[in-house]
Structure prediction request, 322 residues.
Amino acid sequence: MPLVTTTEMFKKAYDGGYAVGAFNVNNMEIVQGITEACQEQHAPVVLQVSKGARAYANHTYLVKMVEAAVQECPDVPIALHLDHGPDFETCKSCIDGGFTSVMIDASSKPFDENVEITKKVVEYAHAHGVVVEAELGTLAGVEDDVKVSAEDSSYTRPEEVEEFVSRTGCDSLAIAIGTSHGAYKFTPEQCTRNEQGILVPPPLRFDVLEEVSKRLPGFPIVLHGSSSVPQKFVDMINAHGGKMPDAIGIPEEELRQAAKLSVCKINIDSDIRLAITATIREYFDEHPDHFDPRQYLKPARQAVKDMVAHKLIHVLGCNGKA
Prediction:
């Protein structure tokens, strides 16, 4: 099947009580690892590209790699999505360049300006058969060019969502309920420690999610910054020369709970980076004489595939839903 929009996959996800994984892609091995897992698990997927990924890998290369994945995985619905589009011009470039979905992130702007920018993108996108994700509330953390301090982050205000969706016409809405970008989602001061001394992050604000869901019945909600930062990868990195103290993510059981509610799309990026980096660091330690990129990128690709398969089954619940 050709690239699809997220409209049908989100409707099925909402009705079925699961979420679709939205995985950031930057190179061939990441695209392959994600889509091979989805093909085997018969799961729909959103492959998303950030501004930084387009700058690194080139728009055309990324689109062609995703088109290759569509050809190799004919049974899987695949949407190609712009993650954190910073302005109308970037969104327009992706719409014109083959993307089936774009996000316009004007969440740092005042409410009315966010509405104005989002509406402009929606009007252009809908005229070209493309769907639009918008954002209300601001997540803390760092992802590519998106850098927001904890002090500047803010939870989504449920009383604003109806007006925002009505005025903009957006197709899905990213909200802030306590997730955060990057591998260091919380400071140790924001967390507690369990008996083993492991950091436990503050719980997600499900009260905000539930209130948003009541105000927007049937409307697809998106969670950004939802990597769980698996400690096995952090430990592997630290054991093989890395320095990632106190890296911590969102507990998978909380993400599964969100997926059973109105959250139809869950974004995962840092976990992919961690899987690749941990595997390559370990490989170099074990094979210091190797220098062929295929030697160390092959197990790195497999690590991505295994991690994504785990997410599809145990976190998102979208396996078998293609």
